[in-house]
Amino acid sequence: MNIHEDVPSLDEALGIAEKALTAYGGLPADAVLHDVGVMCLKEVNTTDGAIISERPQCVQVIYTQQIDGRPVVGPGAEIMVSLGDGGEVLEVSKAWRNISYARETKIIPVEEAILALNDGNILNRPQSPMEGVEIREIQLGYYAKDISSLQEEYTPVWIFSGIENGNMPCNFVVDARADA
Fold it and tell me: At 162, phi and psi to the nearest 5?
């Protein structure tokens, strides 16, 4: 919750983050830049919801894993570097597995995945109801469980990406294996 007034620019943050990751084996070859953004502490008028002030806490650089051009989602495939005043590294979080090809798997058609989504059969349980969610993209990818979970193979999944509450990005993940 600390305020950092002198956070690096988004462009500077990329270079600082990559340099910081050298102490942890560098940036993996299957990593792709997912997001760079300033995290702010906001003071909000509780009557009308208007933002009164915003003060920077850090710049976050987030990388995710990609396999053969397909995204890996879930808590077990993300690297995050948080930077404060003057580019000071505040935190490095790395949940990553080294992977190799295992086998071919038959997947369900997207129509079945849509039915599963509508029935609530998803791998990542939302904390709020799914009413008001607008799905904007559906793609095949993989799911990585939390790094502390035993997972011998990534799960092929259908990823439903969209927005909720008007502007908050969200993903819902449906198991794509035909034999699951």
Answer: -165, -155
Picking from 154, 149, 160, 155, the residue whose alpha carbon sits closest to that of residue 177 is: 155
Residue 11: DSSP 8-state: H
**Span 20-34, pLDDT tens digits:** 999 988 999 999 999
Are the C-beta atoms of 138 and 162 separated by less than 8 Å? no
- 145 contacts 76 by C-beta, under 8 angstroms: yes
Q: Tens digits of per-residue pLDDT, 122-138? A: 888 766 666 778 889 99
Q: Is 18 helix (H, G, I), strand (E, B) or coil?
A: helix
Q: Could you tell me the domains of the chain? A: 10-95 (3.10.450), 110-175 (no CATH)
Q: What is the pTM of this model?
A: 0.82
The answer to whether the CB of 80 falls within 8 A of the CB of 34 is: no
